[in-house]
Amino acid sequence: MPKPVIGILGAGKVGTVLGRLFVAAGYRVIIAGSREASRIALTVEVLVPGAEVGTSEEVARKAEVVILALPLGKYLTIPRDALRGKLVLDAMNYWWEIDGFRDDLSDPRVSTSELVQAYLPESRVLKAFNHMGYHDLDEGPRPAGAPGRKALGIAGDDAADLETTAALVDAVGFDPVTVGTLRDSINLEPGSALFGANFERQAVRDAVTAFPETERGLLVAAARADSPWVGGAA
């Protein structure tokens, strides 16, 4: 089966590391940054040799799978129309230092990937590649079955898309672990035990099981019980 073209929106640390991983795994990769394509061409040539550059619109249009690796606070700038019908992997996290203090991005009633899905109603959004630090992503890939292979949690609502995403995670050198639905992906966000973790598969599963009893898990459960998020596109 042909490998899908991977598009990456975001040419920062996470975006360039993921670009290198997918190029090394034999995928065609196209990257867009916040600047004009010509202004990131040298950066991509040095940091992601073998990848192509394009505008956000071009990446969204040409790629079959698009990874969001830009600051979460910019998610409303994502080319929504060009992503219609595409599988979109949300690797973004809320950082107040970058995004500013945003009640909408820190609301425990809703995962940030649900916000992205609400903005991209005609795309299929999954959470992936967000909870491990970029250094560990860069240095961690190992072949399937290798001792000490690290694991990445993924979350989504569609079984087929989860299977596709799991295959991509495996292809770049990590064990995929499904942690639940897009709503459950809040257990991959900052504040959870998995965020920043560099765990093997069973430890990821154990952290998912333990999440409801953690301080963050209890806060999320209480907020959702008191006033459920009703959602809606921006």
Automatic annotation (TrEMBL):
Keywords: Oxidoreductase
Sequence ranges assigned to domain Pyrroline-5-carboxylate reductase catalytic N-terminal in this UniProt record: 6-94
GO BP annotations listed: copper ion import
InterPro entries: NAD(P)-bd_dom_sf, P5C_Rdtase_cat_N, STEAP_metalloreductase
Gene3D superfamilies (alphabetical): NAD(P)-binding Rossmann-like Domain
SUPFAM superfamilies xrefs: NAD(P)-binding Rossmann-fold domains
GO molecular function ontology, one term from the record: ferric-chelate reductase (NADPH) activity
Pfam families referenced in this protein's UniProt entry, alphabetically: F420_oxidored
Record keyword Oxidoreductase present: yes
GO cellular component: plasma membrane
Designated name of the protein: NADP oxidoreductase
Organism, as annotated: Glaciihabitans arcticus
